[in-house]
Recover the amino acids of this structure.
């Protein structure tokens, strides 16, 4: 759901802030050979605090504003042109990745750290789904859980088989102005697409980056060098090939009629067709840039959440193929 990205990024910020800046000595970024109880206790308290704070904030600031009822299920597999499902996969993957690095920093073994990462990535997302289950406007989504599991699985599989992430899930956002096109509702009121966009996704850059499905892109960033067995290969170790997915003209979950129970506004699909976008682009795996700085290594892990702007090839059913010199 749209609201979950807020708590997701709160988790990222607090996890990274705690890990990067709580100490500054030279050995801080090094992973100890055995469990450091001080680090472990510090991380456990901080992690539980982030989880409790984020969950409480989400419930009080979002769910309590809507009508609640009995726990129920809702199948939203076809909503939002699957952007929502791609977002669930990306969120769970990234949460697992952050948790793994965070727990490894305490000196816990790779096996136990991986188990903790799976539990964190799955548990955080499951909390959101349970909250959804009590909301009359949504419901517990089994497809959401499936894509959460897939995201955690992508991380865990690679870490287990290759001991590294050769394929990284990333996000980006190319901002564009909302159309000023005005619709006349069945009740005689008017609403512009700009107003509808703000109603759905917000108006600030931060809100739109986290929520706007019309400007959001999700990427699978693959590192070819990690698959090349020739040690003398000159293919840059940091250069990735990225496959992206996005969508356009999403002003409603299933179609562009809203409210969905009694449509007051109807957007002509011939003028504003809903369609998916597919991308081929370049990217950078920052974690493969060689450096002796522990701080830079930690910072590169944070930067690796996002795709870098690069030349891209787009395909969609409306415009066919088109080359974009610099696309995020």
């Amino acid at each position: 759901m749209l609201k979950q990205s807020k708590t997701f990024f709160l988790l990222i910020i607090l996890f990274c802030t705690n890990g990067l800046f709580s100490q500054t000595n030279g050995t801080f970024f090094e992973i100890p050979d055995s469990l450091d109880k001080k680090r472990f206790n510090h991380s456990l308290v901080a992690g539980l605090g982030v989880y409790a704070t984020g969950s409480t904030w989400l419930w009080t600031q979002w769910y309590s504003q809507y009508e609640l009822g009995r726990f129920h299920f809702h199948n939203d597999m076809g909503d939002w042109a699957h952007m929502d499902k791609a977002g669930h996969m990306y969120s769970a993957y990234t949460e697992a990745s952050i948790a793994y690095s965070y727990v490894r920093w305490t000196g816990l073994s790779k096996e136990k750290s991986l188990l903790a990462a799976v539990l964190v990535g799955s548990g955080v997302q499951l909390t959101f789904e349970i909250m959804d289950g009590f909301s009359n406007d949504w419901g517990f989504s089994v497809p959401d859980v499936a894509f959460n599991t897939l995201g955690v699985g992508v991380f865990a599989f690679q870490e287990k088989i290759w001991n590294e992430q050769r394929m990284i899930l990333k996000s980006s956002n190319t901002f564009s102005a909302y159309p000023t096109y005005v619709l006349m509702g069945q009740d005689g009121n008017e609403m512009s697409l700009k107003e509808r966009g703000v109603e759905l996704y917000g108006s600030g850059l931060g809100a739109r980056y986290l929520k706007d499905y019309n400007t959001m892109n999700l990427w699978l960033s693959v590192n070819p060098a990690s698959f090349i067995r020739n040690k003398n290969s000159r293919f840059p170790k940091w250069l990735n090939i990225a496959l992206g997915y996005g969508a356009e003209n999403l002003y409603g979950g299933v179609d562009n009629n809203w409210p969905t129970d009694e449509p007051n506004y109807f957007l002509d699909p011939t003028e504003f067709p809903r369609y998916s976008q597919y991308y081929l682009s370049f990217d950078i795996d920052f974690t493969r840039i060689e450096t002796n700085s522990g701080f830079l290594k930690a910072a590169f892990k944070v930067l690796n959440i996002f795709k870098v702007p690069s030349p891209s090839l787009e395909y969609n059913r409306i415009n066919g193929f088109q080359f974009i010199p610099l696309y995020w």
Summary: The chain has eight helices and ten strands.
